[in-house]
Write a structure and sequence with these properties.
The protein is mainly beta. A hairpin with a 4-residue loop joins strand 30 and strand 31. The protein is globular, with a radius of gyration of 21 Å. It has a single domain, classed as TolB, C-terminal domain (Neuraminidase). Helix content is 4%, strand content 40%. The termini are far apart.
Length: 468
């Protein structure tokens, strides 16, 4: 019999574990799905199968990966969800209990398991070269069947990726190649970064190595038409600290923020130029592009990292970790400027992926204008923000709504001509639905709601795979 989960803010309410796999062949649709909307919406997120060791502090980044696939076409919808059957998942399911420490902390690992088997595969879901990958930045991609969600195992891309691989790769719209990196690529707490380019057919094109100034937990990076930028921000990995019973990843405010810039497809080493500035933070990058000698990077930015404690274990206030849409501009001489583009409290920014690395105008976010103190991810609205004019086009689902990451689906040649898809949990009804909004008129609200057969717990990132 499975033990009860502890009383923890990320184990109840929006994030309460669901623990079940479903198949629903014909979902209830409120409104009318666009006839041109044909493909599959994927969402990945944490759904822990077992509670952690009683002395181990749970973290929302740690649950087992659960992938939802919502297939749309012909005005109808179907869904299924499956656990990503990693080695960790299979070992713990066989044992009937948790075997790994949170974040794979060896202090709480069962002697029967290897630290190398810790893989939650819970952060992002990314289609490439006809395959589908569940991503967690500490491991190689875990391949899934795009239709059945059957777990196939690790993908190493011709034995190139045998260790960490970012949860935020970038697909180059010009040639379909996948650009990615691995942080801590020579072991947990190392400064090594492996930069990879995987061609449109799924084969290795290029690999380079570089070192960041200190072992930051690098979550995302920027890709432009000419350059790649690696942000080294003050969330620092320390195995020594973890073994002493303190946080593995912690905010160290005496560290500078540093940005490593090199040519797209560069060879690392001395080609990388590192520029330092005052501490700042972002988990997620919206868009990035070259502007003459400057690099422009738009982010969900904050003063410091949320969810990450200081080295002594104390957690920050919401005000210090509140994300708003910010623009980072790095000059050719390394001069760094930061400005706020929009003051909405936001979470996951996305763009029209056809404009990856290019000058663009529209960022799509989930956010809230309501006070969020004391609430866990209560983002009640979807918004389109024009990064040039500052105009915001938004729709709120109301108090008690929890909106996930919006994904843009093209339906026309111009930027922003298409649809926005986002999972929403109505906490008053304890029910979830996939909202479909016109990205050209977000304020008009959903043109359709695809109702889920059961509550979908809070998760992380999403993607769209068009029908063949």
């Amino acid at each position: 019999m499975t033990a009860m989960f502890p009383d923890h803010p990320y184990l109840k309410g929006y994030y309460q574990p669901f623990g079940a796999e479903m198949d629903a062949p014909d979902l209830v649709i409120e409104g009318k799905l666009p006839q041109t909307l044909s493909g599959t919406f994927y969402r990945n997120g944490p759904d822990p199968l077992y509670p952690p060791h009683p002395e181990d502090r749970y973290h929302v980044f740690d649950g087992d990966g659960m992938v939802y696939a919502i297939r749309l076409g012909g005005g109808r919808a179907a869904m299924k969800n499956r656990y990503v059957r990693t080695r960790k998942y299979e070992l713990e399911r066989a044992a009937g209990r948790r075997l790994f420490g949170v974040f794979g902390n060896p202090r709480f690992n069962d002697p029967s398991v290897s630290p190398m088997e810790y893989n939650t595969a819970n952060t992002h879901i990314w289609p490439h070269a006809g395959a589908l990958y569940a991503l967690m930045e500490g491991c190689p991609p875990t391949a899934l069947d795009p239709d059945t969600l059957e777990t196939k195992g690790y993908e190493t891309f011709d034995n190139t990726v045998t260790g960490p691989f970012t949860a935020h790769p970038k697909t180059d719209p010009d040639d379909g190649a996948l650009h990615a990196f691995g942080c801590g690529a020579k072991g947990p707490g190392s400064t090594a970064i492996r930069y990879d380019i995987i061609d449109s057919a799924g084969h290795k094109r290029h690999t380079a190595w570089l070192d960041q100034p200190y072992p930051s937990m690098m979550h995302d990076f920027a890709l432009t038409e000419r350059r790649v930028v690696f942000p080294c921000l003050p969330v620092v990995i320390s195995m020594e600290r973890a073994m002493a019973g303190k946080p593995l990843a912690a905010w160290e405010d005496d560290r500078p923020a540093a940005f490593g810039i090199m040519a797209k497809g560069g060879n690392g080493g001395d080609e990388v130029r590192w520029f330092e500035t005052d501490p700042t933070f972002a988990f997620h990058i919206a868009g990035s592009f070259d502007d003459g000698q400057d690099v422009v990077i738009d982010v969900a930015g904050s003063k410091r990292a949320p969810l990450m404690p200081s080295a002594d274990g104390t957690l920050p206030s919401h005000q210090d970790t509140r994300f708003t849409l910010k623009r980072w501009r790095i000059g050719g001489n390394g001069h760094f400027r930061e400005e706020e583009l929009d003051g909405l409290d936001i979470q996951f920014p996305r763009i029209d992926d056809r404009f990856q690395g290019k000058r663009y105008r529209k960022t799509f976010v989930n956010g809230t204008a309501r006070p969020t103190a004391g609430r866990i991810d209560g983002f009640d609205q979807i918004a389109a923000i024009d990064v040039e004019s500052g105009a915001r086009d938004s729709f709120s689902f109301g108090e008690g709504a929890y909106c996930g990451e919006p994904v843009f689906v093209p339906d026309g040649p111009g930027e922003g001509e298409g649809w926005l898809l986002a999972l929403v949990w109505d906490s008053h009804r304890n029910a979830s639905f996939l909202a479909v909004l016109d990205a050209r008129d977000v304020a008009a609200g959903p043109v359709a709601k695809v109702h889920m057969p059961a509550r979908v717990p809070g998760g992380f990132h999403c993607h769209w795979r068009p029908a063949a």
